[in-house]
Amino acid sequence: MLKVLYAGSPKAAAITLEYLLKNTQLADCGVEIVGVLTNPPSMQKRHHDLIPTPVHAVASQHEIPVFTPEHLDAELREKIAPLGADLLVCFAYGHIFGPKFLGLFKFGGINLHPSLLPKYRGCTPVPAAILNRDEKTGISVQKIVQEMDCGDLLVQKEISLDFSETAESLLEKSAIMGAEEIALLLVEISKNGKLPAAKAQEGQPTYTGLIKKEDGKIDWNESAPVIEAKIRAYTNEPGCFTSDGKTNLKILKAQIAENPVEANDAVPGKVLSFDKKTGIYIACGKGQLVVTELQWQAKKAMNYKDFMNGSRNFIGSVLL
Description:
This protein is α/β, with parallel strands linked by helices. Helices cover 27% and strands 26% of the residues. It has helices spanning 11-22, 24-28, 54-61, 74-80, 99-102, 125-131, 167-192, 224-233, 304-309, and strands at 2-8, 31-37, 42-43, 50-51, 66-67, 87-91, 109-113, 121-122, 136-143, 153-160, 207-208, 241-243, 248-256, 271-275, 279-283, 288-296, 302-303. The model has no long low-confidence stretch (mean pLDDT 94).
């Protein structure tokens, strides 16, 4: 039997947890998730209600003990120890596990990271792959060590990119692929009574950092491919926005214009035209963007046709 403590918080980590819990092969091999570690409930802005993390919600549905500490301290270790977990499995938990905490587990801990390590270590590897218009990314399952994302690799799998992915869709794909690989690992560990051989990361590391709200501001002087990638990379958070000089405007979906409209000496950010079949054409520093979904501040999101019905003077304006 292999007892597992699962650590994670956001939607993607909940997808992975749900997959593991519903995998009948794991149950047949004696693998059991005996507890879940996740962030504390957060305050919902509108109604001031405390909302549990998506991982918390999944664990509760399956009646698994949930721990939501502010800190990974001695008090938490005293609560976790009686579970008798053999292995810590982590995905997007956001905390550093110290040696005393990892010492609770016979086989230590493993972490799912949505990139081909050592590329894109850190907290935002999925947006980074989209922003850089990479042709491929992937998932890595690594041993947890004290230095962030530096552990030896147990598994790596590639994901081909076709430049249509959003941060949300790519993260969900990574979560499912990662869950499949973790399930195979857990079966192997349960059968063999040890972790499989791991290999050191190879190549020059690159790093990602926190994404701030202001990172989503569109600079129309940039090229259409750069802006289009940013829109996909920053959905849903922090979102990409611009302004008509009075009101902020979110650009939710857009494409690079394959057939740009005629625009002599159009300044970057100028709204050039509207085509009912394709969208709203906006000039960039190089190329044009075709916007298909927008949202005025404090208004609901709209497709380009509905948006233009309520924004008759939008064509010709210059976005800032």
